[in-house]
Amino acid sequence: MLCQLRKPTDPNLLVGIETADDAGVYKLDENTALIQTVDFFTPIVDDPYMFGQIAAANSLSDVYAMGGKPLTVMNIVAFPMCKLGPEVLLKILEGGQDKVAEAGAIIVGGHTVDDDEPKFGLSVTGLCHPDRVLTNANAQPGDWLILTKPVGTGVLATAARADMFPAGVEAASLSMAALNRKAAEVMARHTVHACTDITGFGLLGHIYEMAVGSKTDIQIEAKSVPLLPEAAEAAAMGLVPGGAYDNRNYLSSVRFAEAVPECLRDLFFDPQTSGGLLMSVAESEADNLLADLLQAGIREAAIIGRVTKIGAGEIYVY
Amino acid sequence: MSINVDARGLGCPQPVIATKKALESIASGVITTIVDNATAKENVAKLAAASNCGVSITETNGHFYIKITKGDTPTETSLADEDTSSSVGEGVVYLITQDTMGHGSKELGAVLMKSFMYTVLESRPQPKAIMFVNSAVQLTIAGSPVLEHLKQLAERGVEVLSCGTCLDYYNLKDKLAVGGVTNMFTIVETMAAAPKAVTI
Amino acid sequence: MTIYGEYDRLLSFSSVHHAIRAEKLLAEKGIKVIALPTPREIDISCGQCLLLLAKDQPAALTVLRIAQVKWSKLFSRDAAARIYEQLTDYGGDAQLV
Questions:
Q1: Which of A2, A283, B15, C96 is the most buried (most CB within 10 A)?
Q2: Cβ–Cβ of C39/B71 closer than 8 Å?
Q3: What residues form DSSP beta bridges with B124?
Q4: Rounded to 5 degrees, what angle do the CA atoms A304, A307, A308 make?
Q5: Band of pLDDT at residue B75, cut at 50, 70 and 90
Q6: Judging by DSSP bridges, how do beta strands B54-60 and B93-96 pair with one another?
Q7: How far apart are CA B31 and CA A35, in angstroms?
Q8: Pairing between strand B180-182 and B159-163?
Q9: Using CA atoms in the order A278, A283, A226, A151, what is the torsion angle rounded to 10 degrees?
Q10: ipTM for the assembly
Q11: Degrees (nearest 5) of the Cα angle B89, B112, B88?
Q12: Distance from C2 to chain B by nearest Cα, in Å?
């Protein structure tokens, strides 16, 4: 949509709307660049505190994906005050506030509107070094791809609405509420070529963006992709959200080996909320980076594929 | 038993839940779930497949009719999991006495024989043996319309046996394309020892 | 281990005579087909169907159209999951595929 508007032409704009990246980045001086991002959505869990945590973690994630640190945030709230009451809103805001504190950032204000449907999220400002901005468009042939969180949050949100797979739903909540902060800090100690976070476009959607932006082809090993518990069973029995089918239709160029089961394909198209970081790192660094991530407590981190060669963004899953 | 589940207008994942309840309420039969969007159609089909049921989908005016057949139809996985010898050893023995099935039209008889062999190939448990006498030996030679079905059956451990005298009579000894050659002693023994012997 | 799993199209017929003629014509043209009884998922009456490969679908339907052999319904077939989805019927726009 933004591409229909006039493009800004400022030399200090390091990352704008040209590549479908996670945030905007603007150079302030030789050592500092400003990162700006915004995201908000409707509840995906019943508990208002958890909703606040997940929405905040999700909004903050984009800053980490660019290689930066969040500094200040503002709350964005839409809420049916008469229908749900102030106690519920307070819990949502508390969840958000605790997550922002965990990120080492501060809430400097916010805006609330009355709305039939509750929505919550953050506008986030962060900082990074202008020479160390990580876009999603610099993956190099030969790189390995590391994913830091398991997938399946969309499917398990559908399972939650069906009152099924409670263990998987619980695991999904915790995974969504987890900050990508530690992963970003580990990443900063290594030379990573490209990074993005996995959200509504699904694992394959964001991999596709990285491939097209970097002008490379990518191969993914299906059995290496970490999955949330019970996500595969839930997908196999048809608890697949419409967004997964939308993503699949859009990403019709993705090819699969015949042996990849349907439920895994659904999970790879499943729109994620507050997913992990996807890092493209040189082969020589990959094992070290993975070991550091695991050591830092990011236990689900895994190498899931490779950037194969220069190309037009072909993805092959085997 | 036939149940209709009208899930039109229901939001995700209600169509799947409603269909699941209906499937759990019957031991066998047909559930027809009606939905009005492609997402629900795909999801209900997945549920049916995961529940080991067959699915047939038709569409009229943007509404999808998903016919789910729940029955005692065993599946491929039950064959793969079981010990092959036990699923084959207990089976029935078929004696095929001519190259077409039934009396009357030969053309129809050929169609029926092809259907029969296809269905035997799909059935579980598998038969122990299929034996061919008289004009039925035309079915085990090169160019037979059911050769591919018989080859697959043989690959799965079913004994495919053609009467040597009959092959000789028809001058087909060197044209045998599947299974082995047998004699009347083996044919009689096999039929007598089988829990069930069926003559076609 | 699915039976003839690579055949991902199924053509049904309202009359066995049509099925017999169709099988003969397609075999003559070198199009791979397998005759089978109508799967229970589709109908419980004893009809005849033909299995085809999706890549042969345009050629097969053209052969049948030219010879004016009437078929009933065309399904996509997922043999492993036992899912049949009707794509079109005779007179529908399968010819365009």
A1: B15
A2: no
A3: none
A4: 120
A5: very low
A6: unpaired
A7: 54
A8: parallel
A9: 20
A10: 0.85
A11: 5
A12: 6
